[in-house]
Amino acid sequence: MSQPAPTLAAGSVGVVETRHLDLPEPVRLDCGRELHPVRVAYETYGALSPRRDNVILVCHALSGDAHAAGLSKAPSGESTRDGFGAADRDGAGGKGLGWWDGMIGPGKAFDTDRYFVISTNLLGGCRGTTGPSSIDPATGLPYGPDFPVITVADMVRTQRAFLDVLGIERLAAVAGGSLGGMQALEWAVLYPGQVDAVVAIAGTHALHPQGVAWNAIARDSIMRDPAWQGGRYYGTGRAPDAGMGIGRMVGHITYLSAPALEAKFGRRLQGSDEIRYTITEAEFEVESYLRHQADSFVRRFDANTYLYTSRALTYFDLARQHGGGSLARALDGVSARTLLIAFSSDWLYPPSASQEIEQALRALGKPVELQVIEAPYGHDCFLLEEARQTPIIRRFLARPV
Amino acid sequence: MSQPAPTLAAGSVGVVETRHLDLPEPVRLDCGRELHPVRVAYETYGALSPRRDNVILVCHALSGDAHAAGLSKAPSGESTRDGFGAADRDGAGGKGLGWWDGMIGPGKAFDTDRYFVISTNLLGGCRGTTGPSSIDPATGLPYGPDFPVITVADMVRTQRAFLDVLGIERLAAVAGGSLGGMQALEWAVLYPGQVDAVVAIAGTHALHPQGVAWNAIARDSIMRDPAWQGGRYYGTGRAPDAGMGIGRMVGHITYLSAPALEAKFGRRLQGSDEIRYTITEAEFEVESYLRHQADSFVRRFDANTYLYTSRALTYFDLARQHGGGSLARALDGVSARTLLIAFSSDWLYPPSASQEIEQALRALGKPVELQVIEAPYGHDCFLLEEARQTPIIRRFLARPV
Known about the structure:
Chain A is α/β, with parallel strands linked by helices. Chain A contains 13 helices and 16 strands.
């Protein structure tokens, strides 16, 4: 499907380029290992203030990358905006536009007239930051399954080390949705003196067991694909596309709500009112949609990165990691102001999870605001409901610290 | 895990044997093809009245079989009661007990002191009734992908032909849950003069798009497994166990509710409070549970039967098939009394679907009763909430026609 070339609308950050930076020191990981070298892919939007006090770090979700805003300079111009399948649904994202382009730019939620916005590809990623597809210096081959198991805290430590190199000590805010929201919360816990404000959208302090289960299914689907080859598929000409496609389909359904699927597809058949009696072909529109989403995803994403990132977000559990099982204890040291946004129809990262965070912070006397937005699109809302999030975030950020 | 040998409790129908019957005529299918020969596996419980007017046909769900009640005479004694993963959850089912043993027997919901209960394995099945693993007389080899695509109506036509051979003209009732409920409703539409009462539990008149999507994912997972071999895996020593296991995991989660998973597993780790940092191993209890369910399922079920049965329940759409898009028109000829039971936490076959059937029947002036049971276990409730369904069903069946 050819699309018209994207044009830069008012409020765009313009043409941007993903850059790379090598960390000078190894990153110490939760699992006990050290990782070195670590390269970080990043983009920046806006200008750093002389006092370096206007930095907002945005953190992406499972399948995102550093290209959060603007039009990519890369000639491939591949969209990253369909990180949650939203690309074909809101009509806003075009080829080459960043995954949060609607939120980052002059006058937008993260206002580049005022803030210096930084976006990095997360540790373990496959879009420029060191991950399982990177070369292991010990062997000269891609890490594959030898890549260390990482956590959300490890992602945040990597971002911390990256900002150190840039000479940025404090963050005016750290923000993200989904797994990005987990990173934002982890920042507030790990580096309490260095974050002024947290914006955690469609996030949670710990994925519920059904979410753990969906992630386990997606990972098992990859690992049961013979083409995965124990994770050493690089250079073999085969990759576990079939299995990762299934995992992606599962993900898609969990990112949407049942009513959203009803509204978008109903039980409509593909180009016919008559059943064609086929087992192998996609007959319902929703079946065809899922296959299309799976096929386009596997072309741009690395299966091992999916495994490691999914594992990290499954492990994420603020109470267990930082509070001996108590969320209150885990959040006790937080000094940042916190904005939580949740969506009424999000059953993967439900409002109840954000409410638990809010109550814990409130009980500790911490400044916290929770906004539950009534919207029908499920978890995907965090990429779709930009217009309604924008005034909430702008107002929150503008408040005097 | 060894279990004590099952004992026959009071109310049991005793030791039973699955028998087989060959239909004398071909079955004409919705797809236009005729299927012959067709063998039907069945069990009966109770005694046929001299007037043959006390017959209840029970219809099983996706992964069930003819062994609905009592203790199987088959030496393998393999449980069929975990058709919806309920086996290990309610403690009632043991090795060799039928999948609806709690509902069929003397004094039970389907009271064998009064009724002659018949259970058949559905058309396309893999437990004795003709299906894709049966021998195609045209080739002398298993049908595999040459088996015709079947519908719920085809399943019901096969049951009708089977009952003809037994000399049974009328049904006092037809009953089933999930796909079994679809069959029960289809009976009332296809053979309105021959069914006195319908009991459709956790059923629907048409699966919603999210349910269509889950089924598509399960089927694609099987078909993407290279061991599926285009459906011709019989006799090759390989079967798409990996893919069907993933499909079964997806199914399991959809049969349960998020709160049920929370109550059963929480975020508990396997035998440890510490994360072990592993991608490949199951760390959370819910992960281990899913793998176990997948492994036990693939040992007893045929992947092609899964494909065909899943396709049939996806196609099922009373309004489209029988009403030109109108549910009212589809149900216009129904003469049976209808009992609908739904469960509050069932998000796969939600109460709203049963409500739509109830409203359509009521508007047509048909006798209908809907009971929505508040229960937390999701779709699985239909196999778990036997104690609460029993008085509802007994009262409904006892009512004068």
